[in-house]
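Final report, section 2: Outcomes. Of the targets proposed, Aldo/keto reductase is the one most frequently requested by collaborating groups, and we therefore present its record in full.
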Amino acid sequence: MSLKDKLPGQLGFGTAPLGNMFRNIPEAEALATVDAAWDHGVRFFDAAPLYGAGLAEIRLGEALSKRKRDDYVVSTKVGRLILDELEDPSQRSMGEKGGLFEHGNRNKIVNDYSADATLRSIEGSLKRLKTDRLDIVWVHDVAQDFFGDEWLSYFESARTGAFRTLARLKEEGVIKAWGLGVNRVEPIELTLALDEPKPDGFLLAGRYTLLDHASALQRVMPLSLEHGAEIVVGGPYSSGVLAGGQNFEYQQASPDILAKVARLKALAQRHGVSIKAAALQFALANPAVAAVIPGASRPERIAEDAAAMAEKIPAEFWHALRAEKLVADNAPLPYGA
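The predicted structure is given below as tokens.
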């Protein structure tokens, strides 16, 4: 059974914003956003301990506690362990990028991909999510963008710890699937080259979008199909810059990125296409992609995502996108454009 067969649909909900990413989100607004996702048919929710030091999981668990557990799929991540010890909120960081969750919980987070930490992380997530089981578990951010030149040592720790532990939990029926949740393609390539138990799929954030897809297209998508390990696309709006924001790669977008966004939006406007629809449907056109999980922290954004999935985009738009070299020549497009 493929990863796509384990998911309840192609549109999921990424909960990083519920961890107070970039801003202090009122509790009622966060819970209402999850309710809006549910009301629009979303049944796949992705979380992580890192998101606000457990805040996103707590909020998601509260919102879903009134739902039947068999009616939804939830994924979370291991590799970042939340401690009882508190830290100065001004020191809150996300790997090397800093500051994303400064408004989250104050609990200290440590990087630990060992077998013991994996089990303790899962136990903590179960409590925060108010559930008795997890469907999918991703190994979180074991890549160079967070650990620099030391990333391979962290990867090795994950290989001998988290990978083997999650593979065993799947064999025992405790979880349905496991894989990596990363922002870079290199850990996926390395994982698929291993002889040890293979993951069921990957959550790849920010690397298969209208703005940035060349590396994934060349190095990950064909391998994923070959190994039967499909991709869940996270960050389909490229940290928000495709959806009206100013951030790309979790920081202020460069002039070059903003110029490309302007070209994409101008082309979409000429064809009467919403940029969100173009972004989501572009990602889903690749046969290696099982689902997309845009994030949101306001209920109205969920309605926009649902409408974007259903929007009819003329083939002429995709042909123009190709003609203006705004997508790679070999990127699969809807309608075979």
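The chain is about 40% helix and 15% strand.
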